[in-house]
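Friendly challenge for the regulars: who can give me the structure tokens for this chain first? No prize, just bragging rights.
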Amino acid sequence: MAIYSALQIRRIAQNAEALFSIFRRIRPTDWIDRAATDLDAWVGRELSRLGVSPSMAGYNGYPANSCISANDVVVHGIPTTRPFARGDIFTLDIAGQGGGWMADSAWTFAMPGASERAVRTIQAAWTVLRAVAGIVRSGISVREIAECAEEAAGRAGASVVPQFAGHGIGRELHEAPQIPFVTNGASGRGGYRLDAGEVISIEPVITLGVPVVACGEDGWDCRTDDRSPAAHFEITVVAENDGCRVLGLGGMRGTDLPARPVFG
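First reply, four minutes later:
Bragging rights claimed.
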């Protein structure tokens, strides 16, 4: 497992800050009646302006700059020409590379008129993310992280979608260790404990419905079987002896994330 130096972590953080600057600029009302492909094109232009390359473009044949997963699309939504409408929610997932270092982040946004169930789904996703960020530190086991995510989801009346996990990140987009958010996914390396200087993504995927998904023939768009909305937030954190720091939110401590999403 990679242990990164303070200088290397600053390089990763610079890219993470670039991704979060894009999230901060998004106002959902600006995108009503505009296509997801328009948003993806704008993301590509912003990444170029910031000196960051879109890591998703061409990744295993992926055809866009970002993943845009609307409503019941859980993850890896390929942007379409369908216009965003009132009541939609969507997760924008961006991976970027600059100077040989990777960053990977996602944020879920709600259009005006989103249903109470959709809004609760978004809040549950944030609550689970916040709970996990609050316990990550050097010495914590992968299984403890999974237990925390499952327990936080249960308290929120939600479920973690088990197929999707976090991961190490740094020189490569996906590095060891894998970070599952359900305990039955932590059986193999569940005893593995993080070291100070490891950089991981935290990205539990949440639904209030049954956490069963089916992926399309293209292998990308994955939807909930019962068509319940899904949401997730993804942050990159560095494990330290006394907790973790969030790369992309100015080095905020994981324990200091607010009770509600900081923007969007």
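Residues 129 and 199 are 16 Å apart (CA to CA). The chain has one domain: 6-256. Your move, everyone else.
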